[in-house]
Amino acid sequence: NMAYHVNPAAWTEIDAIWQDLNGDTRVTNDELFGYDWDAEKIVPPTPDTFLWYGGFNPDDPTAITMRNKVDPDHHSPMLDEVTLSYEKELFTDFAARFELLYKRTTDGIWNKDMMLDGTLETKANYYPAGNAESVNMPYYGRNEYFPYELRSNYKDRYDRYQAFQLVLLKRLSNGWMLDASLTLASWRVYYKDEYTNPNNVEYYDTGVNSWMNSPWQFKVPGLYPGKTEDQRHPKSTIVGKITVG
């Protein structure tokens, strides 16, 4: 990730509207357009009307000089982790295990948008642009685009993961085995006012921040080898796994 940050041409992107004016199914420059959100109409493409853009300076789009910077105090994020586990054999070859997990990540990486002269973007660069009626939440526009980044660390913002897990273990005996588990988890991010873009803060701050953050999961993997006179060489093996979450 650091190599990407210091690469002067790691990526560039412009999102525009394409209209196939001559019907040849090929994209040409004169068929690309921007969008005027205030007038709600398609217009010629400019940095102000691109659907989205990034990775370059619109005032000097061919420049490949590295302009991103790294805070001299930048360091790797810190992870504190505690795991408590208790396992007991309930009867021969069958055991249950209880687990408590707690993880807290601090000093996360913060890429602050920056101007060429080192000016950092602040919340003041955003203005109320309207209200999303479907969710009854405000959304914000951006006054000025900051093309570069300063890599630093959050000071107060942190991630917290905590979970309880019940595991049932059946060793391979009597022709079958099992490794089932039920997990209840919570993975949240606490902004502590360390953000620049105010969009969706009400949802993400202390809310669900990971697309894989399932509050619960039930998993039942098992194995059943077909019986033969010599169990070391079963005729067939059935392996199954069910995961719900």
From TrEMBL:
This is TonB-dependent receptor-like beta-barrel domain-containing protein.
